[in-house]
Amino acid sequence: MNFLDRLNIYFYHKDRNKKWPDNPPKILGWRDEESQLSRFRIIAKQHDFNHKTVLDLGCGYGDFKPFIDQHYDIAYYTGIDQHKAFIKEAKKRQLTASEFFDADFARDTLPKHDIVIASGSLNYHSSDSNYLVNMISKMYQAANDAVIFNLLNAKTFPEDTLLKSYHSEHVLAYCRTLSSDCYIEDQYSNDDFTVVLKKPKTHA
Ligand SMILES: C[S@@+](CC[C@H](N)C(=O)[O-])C[C@H]1O[C@@H](n2cnc3c(N)ncnc32)[C@H](O)[C@@H]1O
């Protein structure tokens, strides 16, 4: 992301913080808490997270960590977000077996993890017209087992100057160039779909 892209996202969240100071899901950009949780539930259903390391790109306050702990015994969680205030709050929570970094995940090299997730963080416009494709490829390289991310659905979600939506069939077609084991889940929301991209299992 370039400086202007990052600045737009920064002011979007800063504005929402002013409007809803006591409502974390709203500050993060969600319609409400249920909107955030419905995405987490779908992500959690797509893979066995037990004993896995998880990389959460655009982690916000790190809410996925306590959520996934209710369902699985994960090995370790790493959250990355470029919004310093979110990372500061996430660190304050002192969540177990976790680490948080303030960084632009599109620019930095991603550390290898078993499962890479991105919930709500690939929905912003970027001046790089190949942003999504580059990110999918980058996430795939960083994952040992699976990549799971959601996107706004172009069929139902009208884009604005900040938020971008996508056609699931186009995204899936690209994912198929990386692995035949990929599919879309879109039954949980009108505005959104989840992409699941798994690595072929290697046999010793
Ligand atoms: C809609 S919020 C979702 C937060 C979190 N995934 C959740 O569901 O609670 C999207 C987050 O992605 C972050 N983000 C977007 N693009 C990013 C990038 N290139 N690098 C790091 N963080 C990014 C934003 O700062 C924002 O906190």
Radius of gyration: 16 Å
Number of strands: 8
The CATH architecture is 3-Layer(aba) Sandwich
Strand content: 15-25%
What is the topology?
Layout: H1 3-19, H2 24-28, H3 33-45, E1 53-57, H4 64-69, E2 76-81, H5 84-92, E3 98-102, E4 113-118, H6 131-142, E5 143-153, E6 165-166, H7 168-178, E7 182-185, E8 192-198
Parallel strand pairs: 1-2, 1-4, 2-3, 4-5, 5-6
Antiparallel strand pairs: 5-8, 7-8
Helix pairs in contact: 6-7
The structure holds S-adenosylmethionine.
Give a description of the structure.
Residues 54-139 form the Methyltransferase domain. Keywords: Methyltransferase, Transferase. It comes from Photobacterium swingsii. There is one protein chain. Strands 1, 2, 3, 4, 5, 6, 7 and 8 form an eight-stranded mixed beta sheet that branches. The relative contact order is 0.15. It is built from seven helices and eight strands. The radius of gyration is 16 Å and the shape is globular. It has one domain (3-198): Rossmann fold, CATH 3.40.50.150. α6 crosses α7 (168-178). It has helices at residues 3-19, 24-28, 33-45, 64-69, 84-92, 131-142, 168-178, and strands spanning 53-57, 76-81, 98-102, 113-118, 143-153, 165-166, 182-185, 192-198. The chain has 204 residues and is an alpha/beta fold. S-adenosylmethionine (SAM) is lined by residues 1, 9, 28-29, 36, 58-60, 63, 80-83, 86, 104-106, 119-121, 124. S-adenosylmethionine (SAM) binds at residues 1, 9, 28-29, 36, 58-60, 63, 80-83, 86, 104-106, 119-121, 124.
